Amino acid sequence: MRYVYISLIVLVSAVALVFTIQNLPTVTVHFVTLRLTLPLSVLVILVYFLGMLTGGVFVSLVRSWFRGSTSGTSLQPHETGTE
Fold first, then answer.
1. Which among 42, 40, 38, 43 is positioned nearest to 23, based on CA atoms?
2. CA gap 35, 69 in Å, rounded
């Protein structure tokens, strides 16, 4: 099984290297007042990691909401002692 993992790592690394070499031209990205010029491959990789980060945060948030709704604890009104 170790050789399968090693071969997958080599394959993914080779694909990433070919992608980087084929996408070296620079592009300019405009966002509000920010202007960023960098190689296309770097931009794609940055956007990919940003998506992983935000997706992971979103999934974690939804899981915590789900756990909170199924844990059986509910918010009770604060007792003031006056009846």
1. 40
2. 43
Determine contact, residues 49/56, Cβ cutoff 8 Å.
no
Residue 57 tokens, joined? 């945060």
DSSP 8-state assignment for residue 30:
E
What tens digit of pLDDT does each residue of 33-65 get? 989 899 888 888 888 888 888 888 888 888 888
pTM: 0.56
R_g of the chain, CA atoms, integer Å: 24
Q: 3-state DSSP call for residue 8?
A: helix
The token pair at 1 is 């099984």
